[in-house]
Amino acid sequence: MGPTDEDLVAAVQAGDVSAFDVLVRRWDRKIQGAAFRVLGSPDEARDVSQEAFMKAFRALRGFKQEARFSSWLYQIAMNVCRDKLRRRRGREHLSLDTVVEGGEPALHQRAVADQVVHSGDLARAVAAAIETLPQEQREVVVLKEYEGLTFPEISEILGVPLSTVKTRLYRALSQLRIELERQGVGIKEMTYGLR
Amino acid sequence: MDCADVRDDRLDVLYGEAGADALRRVETHHARCATCREEFDALRGVRRSLGAWRLPAASAEWTGRARRQSPLVGLAAAAGLVLALGGAVRLAGVSFEVAGGPVRFRIGMPDASAQVAELKAAHRNELAKLEAQIAEVQARPAALEVERESALLERVQKMLDERDSRQLQQVDGRVQTLTARAEAQRRYDLARISAGLSYLDGKTGQHAARTTELMGYMLQASEKR
Description:
- The complex is a heterodimer.
- Chain A is mainly α.
- Helix content of chain A is 73%, strand content 0%.
- Chain A is elongated and about 55 Å long.
- Chain B is elongated, with a radius of gyration of 58 Å.
- In chain B, 81% of the residues lie in helices and 3% in strands.
- In chain B, strands 1-2 form a two-stranded antiparallel sheet.
- Chain B has helices spanning 7-14, 20-32, 34-50, 60-68, 71-92, 112-224, and strands spanning 95-97, 104-106.
- The A-B interface holds A 17, 20-21, 24-25, 28-29, 32-33, 36-37, 42, 46, 49-50, 53-54, 57, 122-123, 125-127, 130, 141, 144-146, 150-151, 163, 166, 169-170, 173-174, 176-177, 180, 185, 187, 189-191, 193 and B 7-8, 11-12, 15, 17, 41-56, 61-63, 65-67, 69-74.
């Protein structure tokens, strides 16, 4: 069993820079995965991961280990994702995030979703459905469903109360249910997958 | 219990984070609420569907660049690239010319042997300068040490002199104060003695006058008899 994150962080803080490379190798793919699911772009996900690690490295001296390193890293990565989405919003006239909570998805997303249903690919249907979620709900779904974090951990990462995390997740799951059904993925398919 | 009241508990159950109490509350509620039961099943189905979206397989595009590059490696690579580029530009003899026309740049070494000789001479000069600097630095410590010690001694001596001078001034000041006080006291005492003597003189004079007067009366009386 290798050194824990806490050991590695302490080593970096003591001046052993190579310990940070171990942390990068350990968490890079997870962070990239989370960023990819939030942003939908592998290139941006790589950028997010790089930027998150750079920020973490710069701030590591002040890191008190009161929180887990991974939670702290996810927190940084989610902030970087938000920055990217904000910048993207400025560039795109019709953004993915123009969908308000509980509102109608954007027109081009409907087209994408229809395409997905015809392709018969459940994974793409899910990806398209998640894209319709508002950013805040998408973050919670990604952290809970794909990163397997606990509710208290997500609450810490996002800096919101536990009840808010659950509310966002509940709304997200309800929205995803509607969206998947709209795409032709019914309860039956949800349970057994597309045929 | 209201449907909304068990919503958070239902999520805990859905994700396997529920305690025994929460589980019991949800089961009790589901036993009598078909809508919630149905919704719970639907959410379970949504979760199963979500599981279908996996990250792209460990393809070169997904992991290759990222796995090879940590931020530190990235920085080092960038620095290396800049250095290499600079070196290449220097070695390739890239030159920019502005001679009465558009800006031109030339890549190549028009007179390689002359440039090599020039570079060698420049390197020799740099080496000679560096050697001189090293010799200077090596010679410095002993002289510096002596300089430092004498300067230190001088400073210490100066500080001691200053302290002695300060102490003498203080003693002088105190002596002067004491002398002034003693003089004042002496004058005051003299004045008091003088006043006492005058008083005594006065007393003595009156007594003598009375005695003389009495003696005069006694003489007159004896003469009458």
